[in-house]
Amino acid sequence: MATIKQKTMPLSGDEAVAYAVKQCNVDVVAAYPITPQTIIVEKFSEYVADGEVDTAFVCVESEHSAMTCCLTASATGARTFTATASAGLALMHEMLGVTSGCRAPVVMSVVNRALSAPINIHCDHSDSMAARDLSWIQMYAENSQEAYDSTIQAFRIAENPEIMLPAMVGLDGFVLSHTLENVDVLPDEAVKKFVGTRKVPLVMNHRGKMVPFKLDPENPLTIGPLDLYDYYFEHKRQQEEAMIRAVEVIKNVHDEYAEQSGRSYGNGLVEPYRLDDAEIATVCIGSTAGTVKTIVDALRENGVKAGLLKLRVFRPLPTQDIISSLSGKKAVAVMDRACSFGGNGGPIFHEIRHLLYDQPSKPPIVNYIYGLGGRDTPPYLIDSVYRDLQKIAETGQTKEQIRFLGVRE
Amino acid sequence: MSPQKKGWKEVTLAGVCWVPSTEYKTGDWRSHKPVWDTEKCIRCMFCHIFCPDGAIKYDPETNDMIFDYDFCKGCGICANECPADAIEMVVEGKE
Question: Inter-chain contact B17–A222, Cβ cutoff 8 Å?
Fold first, then answer.
């Protein structure tokens, strides 16, 4: 199938997301403004006011209410979207678990921003990493184009009747959200066709009858009731199963989208960059991957066998891809834009290192905590990481396992 | 773990109830049980009105107050409201 003809628009990351949501035929948006996400819902509210969409736009008094509204709207079978950042995501925390537990496939943009205090409006991943265990699918975008593409794909992934889990798409605050970029956008009709209308699975109701899984006065249902030691565990096991199933669904949705748009990101889960024959590699998520690619190219020109493993999806963790692409490397550095205080490194480091533990050819692996509170991570710092990796590869000695990149001593 | 309970592969999504809520017997939460004294009772129906679980009914055929111990959680409101002291709360198993 030939790639669909697209137009190029100058969009910031936030505008690109708003544009994607406009094209996805969303029924309900409930949101509360917070920097650096505000532009998404501000722009979207303009689409509503101008009659470009027929979405019900609900202005709420807090992020806790925004997520509650999205969850309940989603439970009626509506396609639902919201966006937040930092303290907003933290305030939603309780409802994030309720939403996934009620199997409400809400799609949310998280414009990644540091958590307070001290108050800071710039990028790091401490907000969404603190929500990693709440049964939400997590995707991270490298640039505004990917934020646009991933937002569209997120609806198809989350709403798949086999999955029915909410999904968050992370984009780096200011670095992407407020930076103008040329973004290729699909025609409205193509996106509408790609996302389709939301389908719901069938579920047995209290009369023993199979009915659509949605709140509907014609077919009353109780969703998310009291669930004690006798059944709660089984429901959580189901959520884990849905996450496992999501691995294939994410790849399939990515491939189908790639066929139409001509844009692909590795296999949809991970995007290896010059990694196959690489001896030293870094692992990262988000916009930093762009900087890393530039450095990898420069190192390659000088004969250094450097590579990158960009994680596009963090939940579900692409375990097989991580193991197969990093086993046998001479040294690996995991980049974390969040710190698990007192946890010996950042969250991505923990998980990558855990996956490699059983591998016979596990590489020496170190962790770099970087960019907290929007601290710039320029190319020379990334270059210094690869220089460190060269030394580790040569000596086989990791020395300091946890390192802080770009912090003043 | 009783064998008749559904496993995670069969259980409905998101805790959707596949039986009416009356199938879920909540009476086993009870630690204290209301015991009714037919002699003292004046049939004022206060216990029937105040019971938050609808677990006390009146049977006009027998002129008895019927306590549904499948759902009575032993809150003691009936005993507290009874103007005739006809309901005594006793420790479960010691009645």
Answer: yes
